[in-house]
User: Fold Tryptophan--tRNA ligase from Granulicatella balaenopterae.
Amino acid sequence: KKKIFSGVQPSAIPTIGNYIGAMKHFVDLQDDYDCTYCIVNQHAITVPQDPKKLKQQTRSLAALYIALGLDPNKSTIFVQSEVPAHAQAAWIVQCNVGIGELERMTQYKDKSQKQESVSAGLLTYPPLMVADIVLYNADAVPVGEDQKQHLELTRDFVNRFNSRYGNGNQLLVLPEPLIPKEGARVMSLQTPTKKMSKSDKNIKEYISLLDEPKVIRKKIKSAVTDSSGVISYDPIEKPGVSNLLTIYSAFTNQSIPELVKQYDGVGYGQFKTDLGDAIVAVLEPIQEKYYALLDSDELDAILDEGAKKANLVANKTLHKMERAIGFAR
Ligand code: AQP
Assistant:
């Protein structure tokens, strides 16, 4: 079976953007691939985090993974900091990428602009992500559009590492990004020209996977549209409505042209009511499962087992990298 690796930062509760761009696909991929899904808490501390909240959000994200349908019998589910090989391999990666390559990353440029003081970790976030991916020999990485550049860096690193240290052997696996055709970049509900982000200060910009049904409906009702009153897909001229169509399509598996036809001559009010209902219909049962799992021993058992399995695989690759670069006696 081909291998998949991906992760989400426990920097806040995931949004429907994280769900549509990545997490929804994590579930679908489980049957055909050997999947490893991580809660990347080491990535989360590249910007300041409150320790208590980080701890709680780490557990929360683990419960959400399972509630969404990740099955610990099929996939490995674990917390990044419980597998020391990530930080160890990241060091080797850092020593084999240039500062210039890292300074060019758009996520670094965006996020560093928003910080009062920028941590070194924010710059070296991509090498840690490279380590995450290569340690599990991932053939493919399901991510949203914003992570595409980091995947390109990963591929550059793998090619470089293999040619520098491989003596003609393919030491590390070259991964492909798996970016969905639709919904790879879900936009903010209030500012549909910028990406929806879970750490946004204004909670009206996003819908979190744990928002209560009435909050979900309200946020959709107040989503920015335009004055034309026509439901059609045109991300440039009608970014708000187009974003809502993308979300609608992801939550109902109806295609956008189908939806446009269905809502021909219908007003934004009705469209938004139906969309709110469609999101609630998917998220309500997930939330029920989430709350049942959150404080359970079962969740700890899943994460313990996940860390055990992940450590075995990750250490094997780490040792391969170490031997290749001359960390041996
Ligand atoms: N708006 C989005 N649309 C589609 N996919 C998205 N992703 C993020 N935002 C969108 C994808 O979700 C996965 C997990 O994201 P992450 O936790 O690694 O962090 P991020 O990419 O930095 O996402 P956020 O929500 O903006 O988090 P914060 O605010 O903490 O930085 C990734 O696959 C990502 O592509």
